[in-house]
Amino acid sequence: xxxxxxxxxxxxxxxxxxxxxxxxxxxxxxxxxxxxxxxxxxxxxxxxxxxxxxxxxxxxxxxxxxxxxxxxxxxxxxxxxxxxxxxxxxxxxxxxxxxxxxxxxxxxxxxxxxxxxxxxxxxxxxxxxxxxxxxxxxxxxxxxxxxxxxxxxxxxxxxxxxxxxxxxxxxxxxxxxxxxxxxxxxxxxxxxxxxxxxxxxxxxxxxxxxxxxxxxxxxxxxxxxxxxxxxxxxxxxxxxxxxxxxxxxxxxxxxxxxxxxxxxxxxxxxxxxxxxxxxxxxxxxxxxxxxxxxxxxxxxxxxxxxxxxxxxxxxxxxxxxxxxxxxxxxxxxxxxxxxxxxxxxxxxxxxxxxxxxxxxxxxxxxxxxxxxxxxxxxxxx
Length: 381
Ligand SMILES: Nc1ncnc2c1ncn2[C@@H]1O[C@H](COP(=O)(O)OP(=O)(O)O)[C@@H](O)[C@H]1O
Ligand SMILES: N[C@@H](CCC(=O)OP(=O)(O)O)C(=O)O
Fold this sequence. Notes:
This protein is α/β, with parallel strands linked by helices and about 375 residues long. The protein is built from 15 helices and 13 strands. The two termini are about 40 Å apart.
């Protein structure tokens, strides 16, 4: 066992677990109560482990497959409206089953249905992030799916492997675990190539992996292995490593969290914080600036804290919540940049005010910080 890569698993505190349609619905025969119960048991142990509590988020497929079963449709429909109707029917069963099974394990759960727009629009992105983090803070386990009933083809995430990676990016997870109907990645599709060899470990984003992966093995799900490989690459952009493992492997989640090497591990080449800094630096354009006092500069640089409105003296430019702003000292030198939690108009009202007054000043409070340290990159001095 390679100690280093086992550490990646052992040290993962925030984990996104994705399960595919064929596993969840017993190859389309109907919701697999025993399997969902089993994952719920393991997730409860991970979420409740004293001293080593993990934050767990589930991304579950299966709405369309379960809806087809309930509607008595033997074949996956082609028409969008029929797929959407099936998803609406199936999602009821899915949510109910997870709620029941997680509650039996003493865990509270929440249903979160996301669309591509929730993740592409910066303001909605921050809202979705904030909601998920709040749920985790209250030890509620979010069960996520794409909101298939309202999205059309052009604006779809499309498959839940990708959605799992986007969620890992959104909440800066340490690890994405993709549970599927194979033991992991092989050098070719094992269903059609008996000579295919198992891949234990590789670097996420390695192009050779994309050539090994084929499409979906059944007509139940959407993804196939290629979407899983691409999901691992995407997850790695925010520093999360990915494991692809067999969903029926006994105690798979618990064993992985202990560092046991089951499945295929696709290691993220860059660390989480470094990856996030890279992302903010690379992707976003400056929209404005916040002048801050000496005390705030010392806190940002020295203790790496968030910027609170009380340290802000002046606001420049026009920006919206979620835009990138520079944080400058009184002499105009850049101290940091980061994502603003409030628009420029709101920020002007908040200058020099304690966070306890945000509600009274704006009529609501998104966050007590003007720029959260998780969304901030310190500039070189
Ligand atoms: N290189 C590969 N290694 C493993 N499985 C592969 C590979 N290429 C294609 N596959 C196929 O991908 C399938 C898993 O994807 P999919 O059916 O979408 O599952 P899920 O519903 O879990 O997302 C496997 O059953 C397998 O037939
Ligand atoms: N949102 C869809 C999932 C589509 C999908 O990606 O399925 P899968 O390849 O089985 O993970 C559903 O719930 O049916």
